[in-house]
Write a structure and sequence with these properties.
CATH architecture of chain A: Up-down Bundle
Mean pLDDT of chain A: 87
Number of helices of chain A: 5
Low-confidence stretches of chain B: 1-30
Strand order of the largest sheet of chain B: 1-3-2-6-4-5
Order of helices and strands of chain B: EHEEHEEHEEEHHHHHHHHHH
Largest interface: A-B, 22 and 24 residues
Strand content of chain B: 5-15%
Distance between the termini of chain B: 86 Å
Distance between the termini of chain A: 62 Å
Number of strands of chain B: 8
CATH topology of the largest domain in chain B: Fumarate Reductase Iron-sulfur Protein, Chain B, domain 2
CATH architecture of the largest domain in chain B: Orthogonal Bundle
CATH superfamily of the largest domain in chain B: Alpha-helical ferredoxin
Helix content of chain A: over 70%
Helix content of chain B: 25-40%
Largest sheet of chain A: none
Number of helices of chain B: 13
Bound molecules: iron/sulfur cluster, FE2/S2 (inorganic) cluster
CATH class of the largest domain in chain B: Mainly Alpha
Mean pLDDT of chain B: 84
Number of domains of chain B: 2
Low-confidence stretches of chain A: 1-5
Oligomer: heterodimer
Shape of chain B: elongated
Radius of gyration of chain B: 23 Å
Chain lengths: 125, 287
């Protein structure tokens, strides 16, 4: 007899292996785009790279704004899934799992939405 | 010299066992190759809910004395109520796992002389509910093991009994899973696992490595079923690869490797060729 608290079936929307594949791909992708983003700081003198005008100009270059959006999406997916993994380990009941999944998914969408809004506003759209 | 008797639970008791060496308390005494060590045993009873505390015994040991020998000596000569579990005394049954000087080990497989200390501290395995003293409850552990369907499965009926009833495997086929079949289910890896400590639904290194052991066997064709079992929120993905399971295994099994190999099967990076299982399937289709 298998005890009641051993999970039997995969009754979730996405299989855990699919979620983890997404986790690894977004992690590797983020590593690449963040490296490009950090290296872009070196195109202009480092001291001026974070000045207001410079930052706003970056947003106005389409490919750079796209890069920032990709960073935002990849980091949010990877980071919030990491948080979900940590929280899910803390307690072993279906309610908690559901709460953690919904909470992290909602937080992820909120961060992506807010960040995208910032990029759009900075573009003057 | 006043000999103090055992006071039982709840007190730190010091019991001289050997008149010759009792005066030296727990200091090491050389006596024709014999010396005394201080054996500290963490005692407690989940039914009486007594506060756990150490009982202390002085035990004469020789070069070959194991921790289990010392515990049995203390049980025979000082306090028969010490609860320990053992059977084979030769690292085969997996009953005598406990924390010895801070590390999960088999008591029958740990020589006191090799520990290099004159104080030996025995505690029950963590990540297992304690029943009494050094005896822990393995129910959850065995449930996880059973849940992995740890046996060779072949869904297809044997079409030609005489042709397929004998499964011949090459040494290479056996190498795929051999080390994992040495597992004696002692639970040391389970007790050392940091994920098991926080997540009781996590099957643990033993069960996961056994899932790999049977999946890597080319006589078995239930790999998909086992991959489904381990592929859930509390399943194989929760392994952090701390590696402590492999570090403590007394049988040389590398459960952390088994977990990573099973993961690579789940990610479809690697696969075990199932020649024999396939042969059965092909034969079945022909009929
Ligand atoms: S893998 Fe090793 S440590 Fe774990 S239960 Fe089996 S024999 Fe014991
Ligand atoms: S008594 Fe059997 S493994 Fe120790």
């Amino acid at each position: 007899m298998v005890s009641g608290n051993i999970q039997n079936a995969n009754s979730t929307f996405l299989r855990e292996s699919t979620v983890m594949k997404i986790h690894y791909i977004t992690g590797l992708g983020a590593l690449f785009v963040v490296a490009v983003h950090v290296m872009m700081r070196l195109v202009v003198p480092f001291s001026t790279s974070l000045e207001y005008e410079n930052v706003i100009n970056n947003y106005r270059i389409l490919w750079y704004a796209l890069l920032l959006e990709i960073i935002l999406v990849l980091i949010s997916i990877h980071g919030f899934n990491g948080l979900r993994i940590m929280l899910i380990e803390l307690r072993q009941n279906a309610m908690w799992e559901k709460f953690v999944t919904i909470f992290t998914l909602a937080a992820m969408l909120a961060v992506i939405g807010y960040g995208t809004r910032t990029i759009i506003i900075a573009n003057g759209l | 010299m006043v000999y103090e008797s055992c006071k039982g639970y709840g007190s730190e008791t010091w019991i001289p066992l050997n008149k010759k060496t009792a005066g030296n308390d727990h200091q090491t005494v050389h006596d024709e190759g014999k010396q005394n060590v201080l054996l500290r045993v963490l005692r407690g009873d989940m039914f009486k809910k007594t506060k756990r505390s150490f009982s202390t015994f002085s035990v004469p040991v020789r070069r070959w004395t194991t921790v289990l020998d010392a515990l049995i000596y203390a049980k025979e000569h000082s306090d028969s109520s010490i609860a320990i579990r053992f059977s084979c005394r030769m690292a085969s049954c997996g009953s005598c796992g406990m924390i010895i000087n801070g590390i999960p080990r088999l008591a029958c497989y740990t020589k006191i002389s090799e520990l290099g200390y004159d104080t030996v501290t025995c505690e029950p395995l963590p990540n297992f509910p304690v029943i009494r003293d050094l005896v822990t409850d393995f129910q959850q552990f065995f449930n996880h093991h059973r849940h992995m369907e740890p046996y060779i499965e072949n869904q297809y009926p044997v079409p030609r009994e005489e042709a397929l009833s004998e499964f011949k495997q090459t040494p290479r086929d056996i190498d795929n899973y051999l080390q994992f079949s040495y597992c004696i289910k002692c639970g040391l890896c389970y007790s050392a696992c940091p994920t098991v400590a926080t997540d009781t639904k996590f099957p643990g290194p033993q069960a996961l490595s056994q899932a790999y052991r049977y999946s890597a066997d080319n006589r078995d064709d239930a790999e998909k079923k086992r991959l489904d079992i381990v592929d859930n929120r509390h399943g194989i993905w929760r392994c952090h690869f701390a590696g402590s399971c492999s570090a403590v295994c007394p049988k040389g099994v590398d459960p952390a490797l088994g977990i990573q190999l099973l993961r690579s099967h789940l990610m479809s990076i690697s696969k075990t060729p199932k020649t024999l299982a396939d042969l059965r399937k092909i034969d079945d289709d022909k009929d």
